[in-house]
Amino acid sequence: MSILLISIGFVLCVTGIFGSFLPVLPGPPISWLGLLFLYLAPDIPMNYTVLGITFAIALVIFILDYIIPAYGTKRFGGSKYGIIGTSVGLVIGLLSPIPLGFLIGSFLGAFIGELVFNKRQHQEAFKAATGAFMGFLASTFMKFVCCISFTVFFIYKVIDFRELLF
Q1: Are 131 and 77 in contact (CB under 8 A)?
Q2: Which of 82, 111, 121, 142 could form a disulfide with 78 if both were Cys (CB 3.0 to 4.6 A apart)?
Q3: What is the pTM assigned to this prediction?
Q4: Chain-centre distance of CA 65, in angstroms?
């Protein structure tokens, strides 16, 4: 039973890392679920303090994930079309064979969103797209660091208790 729960937990932690980049998956909450599955394993002693602190971190980052890109976009004079364009461009960029396509796609999506749907001049659209892109990068970096930290902690705990598991 422990091996199954730990395996599911590890898959959730790794899925959370991918969720840091994909706008449809909430990365930190999924990684936190991985930690929860780890502590549900019978051989790993439950630590409510760690679960509480990591849950609070995941929740704060989940909320900030919606605030930071919007703030970056508004700060640089963008609109909701820039934010939507960033997300659409990210997905298209992830599906493209271009290396780092998600970065290029998110910026181009924001630029096109501002240019076409908001009827802005090129310079204004570029400035707004830069704000949307910077907000996206800050938010993505924050989620990625959180999910990597949760995964490293997960692996550390499994290694710490490996003699009980195997």
Answers
A1: yes
A2: 82
A3: 0.81
A4: 8
